[in-house]
Design a protein that fits this description.
By secondary structure, the chain is of the alpha+beta class. Helices cover 36% and strands 26% of the residues. Helix 3 runs antiparallel to helix 7. It starts with a strand and ends with a helix.
Length: 494
């Protein structure tokens, strides 16, 4: 069976399929709920083969109070997994982990505080799988169902699966695993950002999120468990439209030495069972690899990917931080996580990124001596950056998509701005105009020129005044009117 999942309208799903019999039995209101979702035009992630349903996932956003036997959970933003079911004939644990992975990615992108699901105690396999991914039992509902939830403020970073899809903020080491394109596209088909235009999660769920890389120890001895690694796709083809690049990122969960210097540390049968269907190799290919003197397996949990069609949150965060801080284009591109103190709500500007001839980036000093500065972040900016840090894989706050060990290029940022403006039907502006927007609003808000000069990194306040003279003139006019009114009132009273 090909584990190909698709988002299908409820109205196109056969409710009479025996697949739903157990749900109808456990939930008398299931038919009514299903019809309601169909009328609302809702969709569910399904696996269908020859007209039969083998997997079903439905989710919704909500903000309401939840009543349990001994506690009430407050009304906060949550993602509810309304239905999650696999056909008993499949027995595919990997498909199950993939479906949960889709739900957790959806939750991550929604920025809802919690995700939850209700299950009966008899659903032991499902409960075990949910706990494997960090769900905890919050209590029991009046009808006897257990409520299992995951809160983004209480992530268990001691385990990569429990933390999934978030990355541990304590990790201070990262690496690159290079994979030839023919192997990469089999192990990470949903990470190929060059020519595929489909929902990544669809394929991801079918392939599972646990991956095993098989190689020799000479290419793997410098890796360690808990390390975050980028998957580097080595492209060997002739097409100029494709290139070698980092496509995705994973967390190493296990490093298993199978053979060392011809000595077997694991039997061939154990080795084959461990690899299972988590590698790109067939059983015959795995047996041939086992004949070598040195064999190693790296088990990874797949956390996410870099793709041109799935970077909307990236640019939302980028331009929001820009408008709320007034940084120069090179300065925001040059931000590192070490520059940000969430305890003090401060952001330090220490470097600037520029574009050299040929398109490569150069990391250097700020534009002026006063460019090196500390800025107090608005709370909303701190929140945005804290959310970003949960999934950060490099030292850069805004890394290059294809080469995350490098910062995003200022040229890329400006191209993206033009694309956004064009799609929005707005006139083209300079990137620098975003900085002017910040300064204009700050001046209108009453920030004095000296303070503003310090925030913007200007050499002196007079330059700031000269630059924003149109604003200060408006303020002077308003001040004149205020003073005039005051004097008029005085004269009338006298």
């Amino acid at each position: 069976m090909i584990n190909k999942l698709s988002w299908v309208p409820f109205s196109a799903i056969n409710l009479a399929d025996p697949f739903f019999d157990s749900l109808k039995s456990d939930y008398p209101e299931f038919n009514e709920w299903f019809d309601k979702k169909a009328k609302q035009g809702c969709q569910a992630l399904t696996l269908m083969e020859n007209g039969n349903i083998y997997a079903f996932l439905a989710m919704k956003k909500e903000k309401e109070e939840i009543s349990l036997e001994n506690i009430r959970l407050p009304a906060i933003e949550r993602i509810k997994i309304s239905t999650l079911k696999l056909d008993d004939s499949i027995g595919n644990q990997r498909l199950g982990e993939g479906l949960i992975g889709v739900a957790l990615w959806y939750w991550q992108k929604s920025r809802a505080e919690e995700i939850y699901v209700t299950v009966y105690e008899k659903q032991e396999k499902l409960i075990g799988l949910l706990k494997h991914f960090g769900f905890v039992c919050a209590g029991k509902k009046p009808d006897g169902e257990l409520l299992l939830l995951k809160n983004r403020k209480n992530i268990d970073y001691s385990d990569a699966y429990k933390a999934f899809p978030f990355l541990s903020p304590q990790v201070n080491k990262g690496g690159i695993i290079p994979i030839q394109d023919n192997f990469h596209d089999r192990l990470f088909p949903y990470s190929d950002s060059f020519y595929k235009n489909e929902e990544v999660e669809e394929t991801t769920a079918g392939n599972g999120i646990t991956k095993i890389y098989v190689g020799n120890p000479y290419s793997a001895t410098h890796y360690s468990e808990g390390e975050i690694v980028g998957i580097y796709r080595i492209f060997n083809g002739p097409s100029k439209s494709k290139r070698s690049a980092i496509t995705s990122f994973c967390t190493i969960t296990k490093i298993i030495h199978v053979k060392r210097n011809g000595t077997s540390l694991m039997s061939q049968l154990e080795y084959l069972e461990k690899a299972g269907n988590k590698t790109v190799f067939s059983r015959e290919e795995l047996c041939n690899i086992y004949k070598g003197r040195n064999v190693i397996m790296i088990e990874m949990v797949y956390n996410g990917f870099f793709d041109r069609g799935h970077n909307v949150p990236y640019w939302c965060d980028f331009f929001y931080v820009e408008v709320m801080t007034g940084l120069r284009r090179g300065e925001i591109c040059g931000l590192k996580w070490q520059d940000i103190s969430f305890e003090e709500n401060k952001l330090q500007v220490k470097r600037s990124v520029s574009v050299k001839k040929g398109g490569s980036v150069s990391i250097g000093e700020t534009k002026t001596e006063t460019g090196v500065r500390s800025i107090l972040m608005p709370p909303s900016v701190a929140d945005v950056l804290q959310n970003r840090k949960q999934t950060a894989i490099t030292e850069w706050v805004f890394p290059n998509f294809m080469h995350p060990e490098q910062p995003i290029s200022p040229a890329t940022a400006y191209r993206k701005l033009k694309i956004i403006l064009k799609h929005a039907g707005l006139p083209l502006i300079r990137f620098h105009d975003l900085r002017h927007t910040f300064a204009t609003h700050a001046t209108h808000g009453g920030v004095d020129p000296k303070t503003l000069a310090g925030i913007l990194g200007h050499t002196n306040a007079s330059f700031t005044l000269d630059t924003y003279t149109h604003v200060t003139s408006d303020m002077q006019k308003a001040a004149s009117n205020i003073v005039g009114n005051i004097m008029q009132n005085i004269m009338i009273k006298e």
